[in-house]
């Protein structure tokens, strides 16, 4: 009795992918900033190292190491980087659509047809379609973060050890793609700590092993990078980031416009979802153990909420 329903869901999902691909073709444009990465990648592919100008001291004028390495590999194969980066961007974006559906259906217990609604919104999102063909790492990073969050939540919901290991690997790749990946990993590390409280040693040891899967390769990468460039953060951070109140105002306006255009219209849907899942703010006495229980029960929602709020605050800063 469920097969026809599943077939319809698969058909609708394929149709959403088709609509998304059409959207990317309509907004197709390689961003100017992508050519910064392509120049570094070209020099790396030609054996000159990660340099902007051959013969000069190395400067880390990029923030997407893994995307740069992938671009260098593509150039080494003699493939046109502009087109290849766009194709890869569209493919990982489709992967994000898949994880979006799985997150809603498997982790938030939303009905299959209803879980497709989020995929539909994402497919018709202008920024999502634009960045897919921009030649930049944006949607690649988003895919890795989404995969990391999905498998993290799946581990605590279903108990499969492979999920927490895949989560750490995905977040490691996300960190190698953009430095903000470390922030996402740190957030989930804190949630791991809270969820481990009061449990036996088995999940604790599993979490420790997953942390090592992330931490050891990242430490090696960081030390090699620091030895090569001489700074703990990319040069773009020192060139662009300040600490004046005017920067925070600009950041707040930037985030505010995004919220106005892409979040406020869907607030009703978010409230309906929260109501459907029985999420509420309890008044009166609310002990720590109660909070942990609520966190575990509605972990998928809280992971999305905490990361969204933290990332927004980071952007404003």
Provide an overview of this structure.
The mean pLDDT is about 90. The chain starts with a helix and ends with a helix. It contains 15 helices and no strands. The chain has about 325 residues and is mainly alpha-helical. The longest helix has 29 residues, at about 200-230. Helix 3 packs across helix 8 and helix 4 (about 80-105) packs antiparallel against helix 5. The protein has helices at about 5-25, 35-45, 65-75, 80-105, 110-125, 125-130, 140-160, 160-175, 180-195, 200-230, 235-240, 245-260, 265-275, 290-295, 300-315.
Q: Which features characterize this protein?
A:
317 residues, mainly alpha, 76% helix
Q: How do you describe this structure in short?
A:
This protein has 317 residues and is an all-alpha fold. Helices cover 76% and strands 0% of the residues.
Unreliable spans: none
Cα distance spanning the termini:
52 Å
Shape: globular
Helix content: over 70%
- Roughly how many Å is the radius of gyration? 21 Å
Strand tally is: 0
Q: Helical segment tally?
A: 15
Class by SSE composition:
mainly alpha
What does the average pLDDT come to?
Answer: 88
Largest sheet data? none
The helix/strand series, from N terminus to C terminus, equals: HHHHHHHHHHHHHHH
Beta-strand content estimate = under 5%
């Amino acid at each position: 009795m469920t097969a026809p329903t599943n077939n319809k869901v698969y058909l609708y999902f394929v149709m959403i992918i088709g609509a998304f691909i059409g959207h990317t073709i309509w907004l197709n444009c390689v961003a100017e900033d992508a050519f910064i990465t392509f120049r570094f990648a070209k020099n790396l592919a030609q054996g000159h190292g990660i340099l902007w100008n051959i013969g000069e001291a190395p400067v880390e004028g990029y923030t997407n190491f893994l995307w740069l390495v992938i671009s260098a590999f593509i150039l080494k194969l003699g493939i046109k980087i502009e087109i290849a980066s766009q194709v890869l961007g569209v493919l990982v974006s489709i992967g994000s659509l898949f994880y979006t559906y799985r997150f809603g259906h498997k982790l938030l217990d939303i009905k299959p047809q209803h879980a497709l609604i989020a995929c539909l919104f994402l497919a018709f999102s202008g920024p999502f379609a634009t960045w897919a063909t921009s030649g930049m790492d944006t949607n690649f990073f988003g895919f890795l973060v989404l995969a990391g969050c999905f498998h993290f939540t799946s581990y605590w919901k279903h108990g499969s050890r492979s999920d927490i290991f895949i989560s750490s690997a995905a977040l490691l790749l996300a960190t190698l793609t953009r430095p903000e990946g470390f922030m996402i990993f740190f957030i989930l590390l804190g949630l791991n700590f809270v969820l481990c409280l009061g449990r036996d040693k088995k999940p604790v040891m599993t979490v420790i092993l997953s942390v090592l899967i992330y931490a050891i390769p990242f430490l090696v990468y960081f030390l090699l990078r620091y030895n090569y460039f001489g700074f703990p953060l990319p040069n773009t951070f020192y060139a662009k980031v300040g600490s004046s109140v005017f920067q925070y105002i600009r950041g707040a306006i930037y985030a505010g416009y995004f919220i106005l255009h892409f979040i406020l219209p869907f607030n009703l849907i978010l409230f309906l979802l929260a109501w459907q899942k029985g999420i509420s703010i309890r008044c009166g006495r609310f002990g720590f153990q109660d909070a942990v229980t609520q966190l575990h029960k509605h972990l998928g929602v809280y992971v999305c909420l905490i990361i969204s709020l933290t990332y927004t605050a980071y952007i404003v800063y």
